[in-house]
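$ run holo --ligand "copper (II) ion" --emit tokens
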Amino acid sequence: MSATTAPRRTRDDLYRIVAVVVLIAAGVVAALMFRGGDGTDAAAPTVREISVSIANRKVSPPVGRVEVGRGSTIRLTITSDVPDELHVHGYDRRATLKPGEPATLEFRADTTGLFEIETHSDHLLLVQLLVR
Ligand SMILES: [Cu+2]
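-- output --
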């Protein structure tokens, strides 16, 4: 009797374990999909902070493309070691850069396209802003 019930119990336990594993796997997949969706959904408006510093005509982090969804808020913080003017092309936003003083510029990216953010005196390209 015990010989017939023991395997059944074991099988039930196995089903239970399988069910738990499937649930966990489903949870992990759902979490990955959610996170992946967040990361790849470039069309969703967001708040994007971009910090760039300029020293000895070197831009850091190195010039890259920042992709945001239309309607996103862009917060620029630029620190330069020399006086200059910051210019966001397309949106035509400008800020005065004073040596060693972080300048901030915030605007809503509501026009799609590829826009260069640069300095005028030194003609340095800081960031390429891609609004989709
Ligand atoms: Cu310009």
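-- notes --
The helical segments are 2-40.
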